[in-house]
Write a structure and sequence with these properties.
Layout (H helix, E strand, L loop, with lengths): L4 E7 L2 E9 L39 E4 L5 E4 L1 H5 L8 E9 L8 E9 L4 H14 L1 E9 L2 E10 L2 E7 L21 H13 L12 H14 L3 E3 L14 H24 L8 H17 L19 E3 L7
Helix pairs in contact: 3-5, 5-6
Length: 321
C-alpha cells in the first residue's frame, strides 16, 4: 500500500515519525461517458477560451476569479511558498473526551504507521489515549490543505480522522419540524418499545450494498447477451391517512416476530440472512401502513412478462421520489 504522507506527530517534547495511509476506500462501479448510438468514448479537451488552443496539463495553473471577472493566477510555486507549519507535522493541540465530538465534523480516515525506531513512543501514545478515553485534537496539512483532525486508537493502530472546519458545517435550524405538532406519550412509549426490540450491537458485516449487487448482475446479463426485464415502478401513494399508534404497534409485533425467527435459526445452527433486521423494519412499516390507511387506494405496478424464449434478468424497480 502506498503511503500518502510522511511526517511526525509532535507530542509534547516527543516526536513520533509516521507514515499515513488511507483507511477507507469507496467501492463503486465506474462508468465511462459514451455515445449511446455506438458506445464510442466521449473525450474532453482542455481548451483556453482566449486563444482557442488546447493546453497541456503541465501548463495549467489555479485561478481565483474576482467579482469583476478578473482572474488571479496562482502557480504551484506560489502555493509551495505559503507558510504551512503543519506540512510535515501532526501538531497535537489538546485532548478532549471522545464522546464530545459530533460525528458530523469527521471527513476522512487514515491509518498511521510508526516509522523507523518510533514504535515505542507510538505505542505509548496509543495506549495512553485508550486508558484515558481521550482523543487528541490535532492540526495536519494533507494535499496542500491544512485541516483540523482527530487522533485516536483503533485496534492496534493510531487513526487520524480529518475534520471539517466549523464554518463548513451548515446550520440545521431550517430543517427542524414545527414545534406545534403534538406527540402523545403513548406514541413515544410505543416508539421506544420498537427501538428496544431491534436494539443490538453494531456489526457492519450484517449489511451490504444491494444496489451495487443488482447493478453488477445487470452488467453481467448484458455482457452475456441476455434480455433485461425491468418491472414497472409503482406509482406514489398520495393522500394516505395513517393511524400512527396502529402503525407503531404493528411495527413492534413484526420486529418481535422477525427476531424470534432469527433466534430459532441461530438455535438450529443457521445464520440469519443478511439485512434481516432492515427487511423486518421495512415489512413492519408496509404492513402497519396498510392496516392503518383510511379512505385511500393503493397502486401496484405490474411487471410486463417477456414472451421471448431468451433468458431474462430482472432489475430492481427504482424507488419513486
Amino acid at each position: 500500500m502506498q503511503a500518502i504522507w510522511k511526517g511526525s506527530i509532535s507530542f509534547g517534547l516527543v516526536t513520533i515519525p509516521v507514515k499515513v495511509y488511507a483507511a477507507t476506500q469507496e467501492k463503486d462501479i465506474s462508468f465511462r461517458q459514451v455515445h449511446a448510438a455506438d458506445g464510442g468514448r466521449i473525450r474532453y479537451r482542455r481548451v483556453c477560451e482566449i486563444d482557442g488552443q488546447e493546453v497541456p496539463y503541465s501548463d495549467i495553473a489555479k485561478g481565483y476569479e474576482l467579482p469583476d471577472g478578473g482572474m488571479v493566477v496562482l502557480t504551484a510555486e506560489d502555493l509551495a511558498e505559503l507558510p504551512l507549519p503543519t506540512r510535515h507535522v501532526v501538531e497535537v493541540l489538546e485532548f478532549v473526551p471522545a464522546d464530545e465530538i459530533d460525528p458530523i465534523y469527521v471527513s476522512r480516515s487514515y491509518y498511521l504507521q510508526a516509522e523507523g525506531p518510533a514504535a515505542k513512543p507510538y505505542i505509548l501514545l496509543r495506549d495512553a489515549l485508550r486508558r484515558t478515553g481521550q482523543t487528541a485534537v490535532v492540526k495536519v496539512a494533507l494535499r496542500n490543505r491544512e485541516a483540523l483532525a482527530l487522533l485516536r486508537p483503533k485496534d492496534d493502530v493510531l487513526l487520524l480522522q480529518t475534520m471539517l472546519w466549523p464554518d463548513e458545517v451548515r446550520d440545521a435550524s431550517f430543517a427542524a419540524p414545527d414545534e406545534d405538532v403534538e406527540v402523545r406519550a403513548q406514541e413515544i412509549a410505543m416508539a421506544e418499545s420498537y427501538i428496544r426490540t431491534l436494539e443490538t450491537t453494531f456489526d457492519p458485516t450484517r449489511y451490504h450494498d444491494e444496489y451495487r449487487a443488482a447493478l453488477e448482475e445487470l452488467i453481467q446479463a448484458k455482457t452475456a447477451g441476455m434480455e433485461v426485464e425491468a418491472p414497472a415502478a409503482a406509482g406514489p401513494a398520495a393522500g394516505e391517512v395513517v393511524d400512527l399508534m396502529a402503525a407503531l404497534q404493528a411495527s413492534v409485533e413484526e420486529a418481535r416476530r422477525q427476531r424470534g425467527a432469527a433466534a430459532r435459526q441461530a438455535d438450529d445452527g443457521e445464520e440469519p440472512a443478511k439485512g434481516a433486521t432492515k427487511k423486518a423494519a421495512g415489512k413492519a412499516t408496509k404492513r402497519s401502513t396498510a392496516k392503518a390507511a383510511k379512505g385511500t387506494t393503493s397502486r401496484r405496478g405490474t411487471a410486463t412478462k417477456s414472451t421471448r424464449a431468451k433468458k431474462t434478468v430482472k432489475t430492481p424497480a427504482r424507488k419513486s421520489a
